[in-house]
Design brief:
heterodimer; A: 251 residues; mainly alpha; 0% strand; B: mainly alpha
Chain lengths: 251, 114
């Protein structure tokens, strides 16, 4: 029954979409007025050489603010769903005896990831990268501590209160930059910082500040997201251990 | 052949939806949805591609060079973020379903409530 319905619906969707995509310009021949304008003028107007970052944080800055709050509310939602049902009192698990090589590689790679992440965030407006990409790499750097078998170390390095604060500052920073532009008598998110020399790290004015705020928000959001799930696993594991201990005592 | 990437995008969407419809496990279902969503990345990036174009990053490159569309790349970035947040939320809901029904079968909740 389920498959029959899907066969009809899926086939219709495929045929309609197939018909639609053949109305698109053939692959490799796209020609849009906005594209031509941005490619010709974005670097001169915004002084950042990464046009994708200029579009994300400047031309479409308002839209990216919404995107950032999608991430913010989703992480809040996950925290709400998982924290509410978690017992406040559960035993923290003892770090499992990790494989030494895994610990060594994890702990060696973690600072490298953090540096690469910071580099990607800082150079976002100039070279490929940016707040979103660098933020994820930063979060991966923190998670490597967990992968190395150091759960306690991971939780110490990523204090929940600090994460919550970092996420809020990152998300709020975006709005603050927008409001400062407005306070100076221009439009929301109007660039109010001087532009530097094209291609330099400080060249793109307020875009760099927004980019950094997004980097902070994304890094905190992803660590928080994973932490909510790992806490879930560890608390379930702790519960199972408690139950097993009780069973053993009963027997 | 010049329409192949678009056709692949349609295929990814349909095959992802097939997975969602037939899935018997909520974690698997979340991954199927991610496959379906990845079709939109492919479609966006394929539309913006221009033969012979470089990446729209002009560090050390003159701005006159032919480049691919930066707008669809920025849109794809938004798309990826949306996909990840949806996966995160769905997995959190899956954890709750498992706690309540001790099963990850999407049908389990319905049967047990009735």
């Amino acid at each position: 029954m389920r498959l029959t319905v899907f066969a009809v619906a899926g086939a219709s969707l495929a045929v309609l979409l197939g018909y639609a995509v053949f109305g698109l310009p053939p692959f490799g021949t796209f020609h849009g007025p906005y594209t031509d304008y941005l490619l010709a003028h974005a670097v001169g107007q915004r002084h950042g050489t990464n046009v994708v970052a200029a579009v994300t944080f400047d031309y479409r800055g308002f839209d990216t603010m919404g995107e950032e709050f999608i991430l913010f509310s989703a992480v809040s939602g996950v925290a709400l769903l998982l924290r509410a049902s978690r017992d406040s009192e559960y035993e923290r698990p003892v770090d499992a005896q990790p494989v030494e090589s895994l610990t060594a590689v994890g702990l060696l790679a973690s600072p490298v990831f953090v540096v690469v992440g910071l580099w990607l965030v800082a150079h976002g407006p100039v070279t490929p990268g940016g707040g979103f990409q660098g933020g994820v790499v930063l979060a991966a750097g923190a998670l490597l501590i967990y992968i190395a078998g150091q759960y306690r170390g991971f939780r110490t390095a990523t204090d929940e209160a600090v994460l919550d604060a970092a996420e809020s500052v990152g998300a709020g920073g975006f709005i603050v930059v927008g409001l400062v532009g407005m306070g100076l008598g221009a439009a929301f998110l109007h660039n109010f910082l001087p532009y530097g020399r094209i291609g330099h790290i400080d060249s793109s004015g307020a875009t760099a500040v927004i980019n950094a705020a997004v980097g902070l928000e994304v890094a905190a959001a992803f660590v928080l997201l994973v932490t909510e799930f790992t806490e879930e696993v560890t608390s379930a594991r702790a519960h199972r251990k408690l139950r097993d201990d009780a069973d053993r005592e009963g027997a | 052949m010049s329409y192949l990437p678009y056709v692949v995008a349609v295929w990814l969407l349909v095959v992802g939806l097939y997975g969602v419809v037939t899935s018997r496990n909520l974690v698997h279902l979340t991954q199927c949805l991610a496959v379906a969503q990845s079709s939109s990345y492919l479609l966006l990036l394929a539309i913006g591609f221009r033969t012979g174009g470089i990446a729209p990053v002009f560090s050390g490159v003159s701005t006159g060079r032919k480049a691919v569309d930066p707008i669809v790349q920025a849109l794809t970035l938004t798309d990826v973020v949306v996909s990840v947040t949806i996966s995160g939320l769905l997995l959190a809901i899956s954890v709750q379903v498992f706690k309540r029904h001790h099963s990850l079968d999407p049908a389990a909740g319905r049967e047990m409530q009735g």
